[in-house]
Amino acid sequence: MPHFWADVFRGNEQLFAYDHRVSDRKFFVFCRNMFAFALFGHILFIPIFYLLGNPLIFTNNIIAVFLDMVCLWANYKKWHGRLLIWACEIALHAFFCVIVFGWAQGYSYYLLALVPIVFYSRCRFSARLIVSGSLFLATLFLYHYSRTHLPITETRYSMTLFVYVCNLLANFVGLSYASFYYRRYSDRLEHELLKLAQTDVLTGIHNRRSFEHQATNALEHHLLEKEACALFIVDVDHFKRINDSFGHPVGDQALQRVTEACRRSLRADDLFGRIGGEEFAVFLSHTDSLEAMRIAERVRQNIELCRIELSDKTRLFLTVSIGVTVLHATNHTLSQMMSSADQALYQAKNSGRNRVALLNE
User: Where are the transmembrane segments (predicted)?
Assistant: First the structure.
């Protein structure tokens, strides 16, 4: 049992490392697309700002194009805080545009739209709160300023309406993308978490919880339809000795070899899972005792053919003991079937190991 928990902890370390790499990749893609979208938008606004006639904002937009390119480069380098820096650049650009052209052109929408994007960043939560609060205060200030001051540069109504629609569209597209991206990401994570909750990390097959859940459902179906079914438990012989003599990496390799041999030996609809450190269980649908013994013997023989090449060129030979049980009147729950298979397994071990035993009842 201690070896089982050691396997679980090593598997969790690998899982967390994998999740971290996947999360970093997703964040990299999100930032890259947002920076590219902003760069494209600022480039499109170059002629618009030129026509609006304010050289300060035109120059500011050119600087924004350069900063977007810097953010793309920082994203490639995976600098922390790159999304926050980009958000500040967009906010300052929008701030100056409202001061110069007024509230009516819709630049203030960028300040509000940036709030959820800021919370996607990897910065400290306190930093995200400070930036979001600053965006809120800036929006209030700009609203009050626009009510008491005329725009520095007046524009025609048609141009104001055109820029307003462009800004509204840009914000809708940006927020829609961010929402869609993270909704799809969360759905994918939910699917992966469900899969991980049902999978043994080391071997890639069902873990005990998943195996028992699915085997229970299958058994209920067979009881309802009064169909034959069987279950057997596979135990790797002298597994503790393998771990103690050669180390856990060799023990892990042995479990993986046993898993591969079992997969080759079982039928497509057989349910296969790891239920303990070196124990595996197989639920066989539509199977009587003779067929179950035949399949279990095939598993045993294929595992007996497994070889592990060690670093000193010696070979490690693997064998297993298998206990088989079938459904009958006094054995009609999964726990009872597993208990019967355990008793058969002990018979196989007591008879010398590397053999298959059927519980005699």
Answer: 27-50, 56-76, 83-105, 125-145, 157-182
pLDDT band at 3 (very low <50, low <70, confident <90, very high): very low
- Give pLDDT tens digits for 101-131: 999 999 999 999 898 888 888 778 888 899 8
Which DSSP state fits 328?
A: B
**How many degrees, rounded to 5, is the angle at CA 286 between CA 282 and CA 288?**
80
8-state DSSP, 269: T
Q: What are phi and psi of 65, to 5 degrees?
A: -60, -45
Q: Cα-flanking dihedrals φ and ψ of residue 282, to 5°? A: -130, 125
What are the phi and psi torsion angles at 270 (to 5°)?
-75, 140
Residue boundaries of the structural domains of the chain: 2-198, 208-358
Main-chain phi, psi angles of 7, to 5 degrees: -65, -40
Q: How far apart are the C-alpha atoms of 165 and 153, rounded to whole Å?
A: 19
| Tokens matching residue 105 | 């052109």
pTM score, two decimals? 0.58
Q: Report the CATH architecture of 208-358.
A: 2-Layer Sandwich (3.30)
Whole-number Å distance between alpha carbons of 267 and 125: 52
Paired tokens of 285: 């649908």
CB 212 within 8 A of CB 279: no
| Positions of E strands within the chain | 229-236, 271-274, 279-285, 307-309, 315-317, 320-326, 356-358
- Calpha distance 78→143 (Å, rounded): 36
Tokens 């990496």, residue located: 249
- Contact call for residues 110 and 94 (beta carbons, < 8 A): yes
